Structures are given as structure tokens and as C-alpha cells.
Amino acid sequence: MKLLVVGSGGREHALCWALKREQPAAACFCAPGNPGTAELATNLPVTADDLGGLVSAVEEHGVDLTVVGPEGPLAQGLADRLRARGRRVFGPSSAAAQIEASKAWAKGVMAAAGVPTAGSRCFGDVGQALAYVERQPEPLVVKASGLAAGKGAVVCATRAEARDAVRAMLGEGRFGEAGRLIVVEEFLEGEELSVLALTNGWDTVLLPAAQDHKRLLQGDAGPNTGGMGAYSPVALETPRLRAAVEQRILRPTLAELERRGAPFVGVLYAGLMVDREGTPSVVEFNCRFGDPEAQTILPRIAGGLFDALWAAASREPIPAPRMLPDAAVTTVLAARGYPDRVEKGALIEIPADLPTGVVVFHAGTARGVDGQLRVSGGRVLSVTATAPTFRAAREASRAAAERVQFEGKQFRPDIGWREDARAA
């Protein structure tokens, strides 16, 4: 068996780790990978956006299953190219990946499918968007429609803030091409939840939910980021909620994608807002494993991940992976200046004697010319701990995060604070 994981972040390290744990005899490749994946797989010198190079690598190495981590190559059509050559790939077509690559298009899908989501309007003109903002109640959310590395949504407490966000995106080009079209939507009250569903286009297998922490600072303060940590399971996820997500959100969305000629094969990520009555609405869809949700959920899988991905990629019925009862908490360690002006180059020291149940997933790391591990990106490492209880996992993750050293390290010591409050 030969496997390829596409990408270079913590999510891809977690995928390599989980797949290699289940398939120890498999030849595993990662493109381009990072120093963490290099310990489990053969890193290939092909970037995730080099579609031609990736296709060539799959054929050269005779890869049996390709698992695509980031949304970019999916939106650009990597899965289409591989399938056209008869290669098995876990990830949606370019058409189906628009569920994430175009928030405006996704809103249309949800409207046609009757999926609950925030009321919204799409704009490409500054003046029209500003006029619309003036008529809306506060607060508001302004989003770049395209891919913005998880940072394209701005929650605006006032119309003045919304006006600033509109001008920054449409007038000043803050998010480049991704912000040429924006979505202005109502603010949903409630608590966020991430639900990942493995799907072959019609069948769904829901993985346990996780809760991400987008803000940089403790207490959900500071700027929005790609995610500073996550935990799973979440008490908010009841059997009733799971049934509602599957029946009112996932299945109608998949059916509408099929109707549009864009069947979705891969993992459909539903970012939800759950109100006080426990009713979910969609904040956004992603077309891939979340980051850092993957680093949190994958260590909770006792077995069957490979079989599930293989079956989905083959468009066959998906066997449900076996889950551990343990809780998992992931703490992200970020570089100084993240998310705006990242400082790179700091020497990283990861203790060799971390306790059982703690795994450090690499993301923004690289080996210097001296062979030393150094900071090379904004989110540097994900420290995941599994334990029989949430509080034990949280303490183990936080303690290990404190022990990892690099100059300028930032992390949130309060990952899972809502769960902790519920358990009090």
C-alpha cells in the first residue's frame, strides 16, 4: 500500500500519523510535508499548489490513495486530475470544493437545500455594500467570499466596524482576489461547533464534534486566527443535535450538490452555531479536515480511519471508524507576531520525555542549514493530549505546551474554557 498526504501543516502531520498507525507497513509520502511528517513518511519536494507535480508524483510512485489536506489544491482541481487518470483520491472535485472556495456560492446551495444559515447578501460593489450595511441591525459579519486561510470573516459589533471591513475588503483589497466578492450576513447568537462528516457523495459518517478557538488571546479576545486550539468531545453535541445536523444540514446539502452535478466525496466540514435551544445553523462549510480539529479528532480514532477514507474515495459504503472514549485537547503554539507579522527563525526545543498520550504535530517548522528545528510559519506546533477526562487532557496539553520552547511563543492556556465551565 502506498499513500500520499498533500499539504505541509499540522493537519497533514496528524493525517500521516493516524494513517501510519493503522497501516504501519504502508509506504507513506507527504508533499511537501514538514519535519514532523519526515519522521513518518517520505517528504516529496512538490508544493501543494503544484498540481502537475503532484499528479506526476502519484504516477511515479504508484500511489494507491491520495488524501488532500488543504482546500487550495481541491478548489484548483487536484482531485479531478487524479480521478481522470484512474487514481483513488479522498477529496472533492473542484466543483464541489466551491462549497468552501466561494461563500457566495455556498449560500446559494444552502438556500436551495433549505439549510438553516444566517440571512445574507453578496456584494462586489463598495457603495451597494455600504448602503446595505446602513439598513441592517447590529452586530454584523462581513466575509471575504473566497479562500482567505481561515481569516476572512470579520465580526463587527457596530455598523461603523462593518463599514470599515467592507472598505478594507472591496476598496483596499485586504484579502486580494478572495475579497473581490463579499458576504454581509446577520450575526448568529450561540456557541460554535465543528462537525466533520466523511462522505462518498450520499452516505455520511459523522466524526465526533470538536470546538475550535479562533481568537488569538485568552477569553476569546484579540484578532481572528486560523485556530489556536480545539477539544473533543463537546457536551453540546447531543444525539438530538447529531441527528439534526445529519438530517437538516448534511444530507440536504449533499443532495443539492449532487443535483448541481457536483457530488461531494471527501470530508464535509460544517461549522455550526448552536443556539440556546440546541438548534444548529451553518456558519460556513469547509471541503476538508479542519485545522486544528484534525489534530484533536484523529488521535481519538482507535481504528478504521484508513478503511473509511478508502471506501469514501471508492464511492462505496463507509464503515464507521472506531472511537476511543478518551477526550482530546489541542493547544496551538504560535510564533511571535502571529497572525499579522510573523517572526521566523527562532530555535525550537521539544522535550524528548513528553508523557504518554501527548503528541506534538508540526506545522510552521523547518530544519535550518544547521539541521536545527526552527520556526517557519505562524502556527508552529499543535500539542495534543488524550486522557480519560476532558480536564486531564486539558491539563496535559497545557503542561506540554509550556515545556516546548521557542522565542516569542504564544499560546492560549484556556482551550476548552466553555467545557470547563459546563463541568463546574
A few lines on this structure:
The chain is of the alpha+beta class and 424 residues long. It is 32% helix and 26% strand.
What can you see in these coordinates?
This protein has helices at residues 10-22, 51-61, 71-76, 78-84, 94-101, 103-113, 126-134, 159-171, 239-259, 293-297, 305-313, 390-403, 417-423, and strands at 2-7, 27-32, 42-43, 65-68, 89-90, 120-123, 140-144, 153-156, 182-186, 191-199, 204-206, 211-212, 215-217, 221-224, 229-232, 266-274, 280-286, 301-303, 322-323, 327-334, 358-362, 365-367, 373-375, 379-387. By secondary structure, the chain is α+β, with helices and mostly antiparallel strands. Among the domains are: 2-98, 3-Layer(aba) Sandwich (Rossmann fold); 119-186, ATP-grasp fold, A domain (Dna Ligase, domain 1), CATH 3.30.1490. It has a five-stranded parallel sheet with strand order 3-2-1-4-5, sandwiched between helices. A five-stranded antiparallel sheet has the order 12-15-20-24-21. It has a four-stranded antiparallel sheet with strand order 6-9-7-8, sandwiched between helices. The N and C termini lie far apart (47 Å).
Write the layout of secondary structure elements.
Elements (H helix, E strand, L loop, with lengths): L1 E6 L2 H13 L4 E6 L9 E2 L7 H11 L3 E4 L2 H6 L1 H7 L4 E2 L3 H8 L1 H11 L6 E4 L2 H9 L5 E5 L8 E4 L2 H13 L10 E5 L4 E9 L4 E3 L4 E2 L2 E3 L3 E4 L4 E4 L6 H21 L6 E9 L5 E7 L6 H5 L3 E3 L1 H9 L8 E2 L3 E8 L23 E5 L2 E3 L5 E3 L3 E9 L2 H14 L13 H7 L1
Parallel strand pairs: 1-2, 1-4, 2-3, 4-5
Antiparallel strand pairs: 6-9, 7-8, 7-9, 10-11, 10-16, 12-15, 13-14, 15-20, 16-17, 18-19, 20-24, 21-24, 22-23
